Amino acid sequence: MKKALITGITGQDGSYLAEFLLSKGYQVYGLKRRTATPNFENIQHILDKIEIISGDLLDLSSLIEAIRASDPDEVYNLAAQSFVADSWPQAIYTGYATGLGVTNILEAIRLTKPDIRFYQASSSEMFGKVLEIPQKETTPFYPRSPYAVSKVCGHWITVNYRESYGMYTCSGILFNHESPRRGLEFVTRKVTNGVAKIKLGLQKELRLGNLDAKRDWGYAGDYVKAMWLMLQQENPEDYVIATGETHSVRELVEIAFDYVGLDWNKYIVQDPNLMRPAEVDLLLGDPKKAMDKLGWKPEITFENLIKTMIDSDMQKLKAKK
Ligand code: NAP
Ligand code: G4F
């Protein structure tokens, strides 16, 4: 039985990856930092099938202990301060967690079990003010937020440990991926939850920032399969994972309000406080390498993804009511 350690197991991707690895027969361990209130919502349904290990990406000793305790074949580093907007007011913390945290986990692996196969959650945010359309593995980075700068650090240290020590380390450069488990602060979930609340009479308006920004949005359940596939190859390499389609926030809003039969113009309020100090205007990925080498492809369309998220938010809100 293969063993995997997932950092960030309570997050969106961690929960889908844990489910996927369990379905492949893995023994799954999840690193969980201490929080004052419980946040097991995404993994509640599989808690009896996985083992939780206490630890924090900022605490090297806890990472070494986590690797000793789980003795994994594969480590998936998904933990991060992942909300771009908060990376300006928390630039230093983001640098520690999202950037230096990657060096911590790589050091823990190098010192304990260097033949572990390692996955790093790199991000399309690294392309930032894009230097090429569409973006692929060879496109240079131009990060536009403290988050993206930290991810570039995490990305290159992953490449560096591969080249310096011959370790099996891969980065997946994942474009935005969403699901009903997406945090409420990210724009897709903010919109689907807001639309559901408006439809149910629980909210009167939805305040958003930049409606012109474009993203290549996919489904998280599809993307975790690519993470696993990267670690099953003969040689470690980096891959872009994307749908190859881009949509604006305005299109997202239109699709969402249309689905519940409402006119979005009546409810959307543009709020200057939600504009970012530096924006990433357009992301569009080219997943050709992943399709050719990994045999990976996205399964769910953008429109269906948004509809599924609205259905799920409706259900949750009705259950609460
Ligand atoms: P998420 O829902 O925000 O989950 C982040 C996870 O990291 C949570 O489990 C969180 O734990 C944990 N974490 C944060 N700081 C930690 C620390 N210091 N020590 C240990 N754990 C810590 O993020 P996601 O959407 O699943 O994304 C997973 C990873 O992929 C992240 O690295 C993100 O930056 C990257 N990424 C995401 C996307 C996307 O579109 N979703 C695209 C590209 C890359 P708590 O529950 O305690 O907060
Ligand atoms: O949903 P977002 O906050 O995601 P963003 O910034 O693209 O980052 C996500 O994807 C990255 C991959 O490219 C990940 F690395 C990262 O961890 C995270 O998962 O914002 C998307 C767009 C932005 O252009 C933002 O300015 O939506 C725009 N937007 C407009 N109004 C808004 C809002 N974003 C948020 N969160 N909230 C708004 O009210």
TrEMBL record:
Domain of life: Bacteria
A Gene Ontology BP annotation from the UniProt entry: 'de novo' GDP-L-fucose biosynthetic process
One Pfam family linked to the record: GDP_Man_Dehyd
Cofactor needs: NADP(+)
InterPro entries (UniProt xref): GDP_Man_deHydtase, NAD(P)-bd_dom, NAD(P)-bd_dom_sf
Residues of the NAD(P)-binding domain: 5-309
GO MF assignments: GDP-mannose 4,6-dehydratase activity; NADP+ binding
Catalysed reaction equations from the record: GDP-alpha-D-mannose = GDP-4-dehydro-alpha-D-rhamnose + H2O
Keywords: Lyase, NADP
CDD domains hit by this protein: GDP_MD_SDR_e (cd05260)
Transmembrane segments: none
Enzyme Commission number(s) from the entry: 4.2.1.47
Family classification: Belongs to the NAD(P)-dependent epimerase/dehydratase family. GDP-mannose 4,6-dehydratase subfamily.
Function of the molecule: Catalyzes the conversion of GDP-D-mannose to GDP-4-dehydro-6-deoxy-D-mannose.
Annotated protein name in UniProt: GDP-mannose 4,6-dehydratase
Annotated source species: Cytobacillus firmus
Lineage, highest ranks first: Bacteria, Bacillati, Bacillota, Bacilli, Bacillales
